[in-house]
Amino acid sequence: MKTVVGDITSLEADVIVNAANGIGPMGGGVAAAIRRIGGIEIEKEAIEVCRRIDPSEGEVYVTGAGKLKFKYVFHAVTMKQPAQPSSIEIVKKCINSLLEKAREMKITSMVLPALATGVGGVPKEEVAKVYASMLGKVTDIDITVADVSGEFIKKLEKYM
After folding, report:
1. Which contiguous run of DSSP H or E holds residue 73?
2. Phi, then psi, of 132 in degrees rounded to 5
3. 7-30, pLDDT tens digit by residue?
4. In terms of Cα–Cα distance, which of 49, 34, 7 is closest to 144?
5. How far apart are CA 57 and CA 69, in angstroms?
């Protein structure tokens, strides 16, 4: 696992991970950046997919990446409805789902933000510990964790 302080949408990988709700609208944080740079079609597809499969917290659904240079967006459902609180247990389920989906789709690289630490309200310190323990051991997928402010990266690097 690598860490980067910077804009997650500017990195290179097969997949960019979005901390998502289970109904599709891409409102704030990383989701808003993905929509702004990748195009509204990503959000439209996310809403359509959510209507069709009704994903639960901890699950992952996939859309195209629009104008972004990634192959796919993996939407990790950290909350069912927009602006709901999340939990560290949901983050753990999301990580397992992300790894499972990546392996199923033969993905070799992904970039992800600090899931559920914004609107979801999960403490960054807790998420950093979970990332280090669950993602630090992964060798078959090149994982990069990105944070624009660097605050999460500092916490994560303490546990790596």
Report:
1. strand 72-79
2. -60, -45
3. 999 999 999 999 999 999 998 889
4. 7
5. 27
| pTM summary value | 0.97
Q: Lay out the sheet containing 72-79: strands in order across.
A: 2-5, 142-147, 109-112, 15-21, 72-79, 60-64
Tokens 């009704």 belong to which residue?
54
Contact residues for 27 (Cβ-Cβ < 8 A; gap 6+): 82, 83, 119
Provide the token pair at 88. Answer: 């560290």
Considering the four listed CATH numbers 3.40.50.720, 3.30.540.10, 3.40.220.10, 3.30.70.1400, the one that applies to the domain covering 2-159 is 3.40.220.10
Residue labelled with tokens 């983050």: 91
Largest CA distance in the chain: 41
Contact partners, residue 132, CB within 8 Å, separation at least 6: 1, 156, 159, 160
